[in-house]
C-alpha cells in the first residue's frame, strides 16, 4: 500500500487510499501529531507496514467501551444465541460491566487496556467490607470474561482495536465445587415425606433419572411410551425474565431417550389415572397442559415454588439441606459408586462432553478407585509376605 505526507498547520498528516463497503476508493487522512517531517516519515512507514500486514487500525470516531458493549449485545450477538443465553449476557453487561466502567471515567474502546479489565475482575471478586456484600465467585467472573472477550474479539475483527486486551489478564482462581448428594437411605426418606405434596412427582422422577429441574417440569405424558418402555427428554420449561418458555434442551446430547424403569412406569400409570380423575372433577376449568408434574387442575408448576417447597420439606423433616438440583448429583454419585462408567453417566445425564462429568464427579470417581486399590491390595497381600522388607 502507498501513502503520502502533507502538512496542515503544525502537524503532518498521512494520506492513504482505502475502500469503503461498496469497493469505492476514498482518501483517509491520519494525523501523525508529528511536527517534524522526519518523525512523520517514520510514522508513515510504520503505518504502511501494519496496513500490509492487515494489523493497522484506522482512527475511529470516539466510541465508548460501554456503548460498544451495548451495541454488541443488542445488534451482534442477539441473533446468534438462544434467548435464554442472551438473557444471561444482558444481565452481565447491563448490571455489572456497564455500571462499573461508567464509574471509571467511561473509557473509549480504543483506550481500553488489560489493566482496566484486570481491575474490573479484582474489584468484582472482592468482598465489600462497608456493606458486607460478598464478591462474585471466580466461576461467575469467568462468564463475565467470556462476554467481554467475545465482544472484543469482534472489535478486533472489525479493525476497531489492534488487539484484544481480554487475552492478557489473569482471572481469579476458580474453587472446585464439590456437589452435595443424598445417600439411598436419605432419598428413600425424602420420597416418603414428599408423598402427597404438590412436588411429589417432580422429586420422585428427578431423583430416579437425574433430571434437571427444567427437564422434569417440562416432561409431558406424550414423551412417555408405555409400549416401548421409554421416556424421552424433548422439552424443557425455563424462565426468561418474567416469562416461562417451553423449548428444546440446549444441546443435542440433552435430548435423550431413557428406558422406562418399572418403578417409574407403575408410578406414572397411577399418576395418569389420578389426572384423568382430576379432569372430570375440574371440568371446563381443567387445563390440558399434558404435563407430568403439574397442579391438580393441570396448570404448570413454577420453578420458584418447587425450590421453596423442596427447601421447606427438608427443614421440617430434619433432612440435610441440598438444592433440588442436587438430586441430579445424588443419582450420578450413586451410579458411579456402583461401577457405572463416567461415559455411561455422561450419556444418562445428557452432558455434552465427558469432561463435564469427570470434573463434576472427580471426588466420587476417586472413591471408587480407592475401593479398587484396596481390592488389588487384598488380592496380593498374602503373596507378598515373602518380599524383602
Automatic annotation (TrEMBL):
InterPro entries attached to this UniProt entry: AP2-like_int_N, CB, DNA_brk_join_enz, Integrase-like_cat_sf, Integrase_catalytic, Integrase_recombinase_N, Integrase_SAM-like_N, Tyrosine_recombinase_XerCD
Keyword list, A-Z: DNA integration, DNA recombination, DNA-binding
DNA-binding in keyword set: yes
DNA-binding recorded as keyword: yes
Residues annotated as domain Tyr recombinase: 177-374
A Pfam family this chain is assigned to: Arm-DNA-bind_4
Domain Core-binding (CB) residues, every copy: 67-156
Protein family (similarity comment): Belongs to the 'phage' integrase family.
Protein name (Swiss-Prot/TrEMBL): Tyrosine-type recombinase/integrase
Natural source organism: Cohnella yongneupensis
Amino acid at each position: 500500500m502507498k501513502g503520502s505526507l502533507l502538512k496542515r498547520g503544525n502537524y503532518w498528516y498521512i494520506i492513504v487510499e482505502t475502500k469503503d463497503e461498496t469497493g469505492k476508493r476514498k482518501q483517509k487522512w491520519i494525523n501523525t501529531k508529528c511536527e517534524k517531517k522526519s518523525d512523520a516519515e517514520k510514522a508513515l512507514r510504520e503505518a504502511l507496514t501494519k496496513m500490509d500486514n492487515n494489523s493497522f487500525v484506522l482512527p475511529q470516531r470516539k466510541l465508548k467501551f460501554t456503548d460498544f458493549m451495548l451495541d454488541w449485545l443488542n445488534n451482534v450477538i442477539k441473533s446468534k444465541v438462544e434467548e435464554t443465553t442472551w438473557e444471561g449476557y444482558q444481565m452481565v453487561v447491563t448490571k455489572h460491566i456497564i455500571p462499573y466502567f461508567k464509574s471509571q471515567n467511561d473509557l473509549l474502546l480504543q483506550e481500553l487496556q488489560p489493566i482496566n479489565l484486570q481491575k474490573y475482575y479484582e474489584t468484582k471478586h472482592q468482598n465489600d467490607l462497608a456493606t458486607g456484600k460478598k464478591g462474585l465467585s471466580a466461576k461467575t467472573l469467568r462468564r463475565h470474561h467470556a462476554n467481554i472477550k467475545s465482544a472484543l474479539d469482534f472489535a478486533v475483527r472489525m479493525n476497531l482495536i489492534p488487539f484484544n486486551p481480554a487475552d492478557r489478564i489473569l482471572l481469579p482462581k476458580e474453587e472446585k465445587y464439590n456437589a452435595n448428594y443424598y445417600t439411598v437411605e436419605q432419598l428413600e426418606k425424602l420420597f416418603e415425606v414428599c408423598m402427597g405434596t404438590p412436588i411429589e412427582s417432580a422429586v420422585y422422577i428427578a431423583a430416579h433419572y437425574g433430571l434437571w429441574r427444567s427437564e422434569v417440569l417440562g416432561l409431558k405424558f406424550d414423551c412417555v411410551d408405555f409400549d416401548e418402555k421409554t421416556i424421552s427428554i424433548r422439552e424443557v420449561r425455563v424462565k426468561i425474565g418474567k416469562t416461562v418458555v417451553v423449548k428444546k434442551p440446549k444441546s443435542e446430547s440433552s435430548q435423550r431417550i431413557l428406558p422406562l424403569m418399572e418403578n417409574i412406569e407403575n408410578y406414572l400409570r397411577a399418576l395418569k389415572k389420578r389426572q384423568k380423575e382430576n379432569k372430570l372433577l375440574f371440568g371446563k376449568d381443567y387445563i390440558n397442559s399434558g404435563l407430568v408434574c403439574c397442579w391438580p387442575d393441570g396448570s404448570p408448576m413454577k420453578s420458584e415454588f418447587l425450590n421453596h417447597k423442596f427447601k421447606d420439606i427438608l427443614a421440617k423433616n430434619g433432612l440435610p439441606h441440598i438444592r433440588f438440583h442436587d438430586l441430579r448429583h445424588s443419582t450420578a454419585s450413586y451410579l458411579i459408586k456402583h461401577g457405572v462408567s463416567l461415559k455411561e453417566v455422561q450419556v444418562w445425564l445428557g452432558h455434552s462432553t465427558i469432561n463435564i462429568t469427570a470434573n463434576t464427579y472427580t471426588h466420587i470417581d476417586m472413591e471408587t478407585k480407592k475401593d479398587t486399590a484396596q481390592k488389588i491390595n487384598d488380592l496380593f497381600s498374602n503373596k507378598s509376605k515373602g518380599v524383602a522388607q
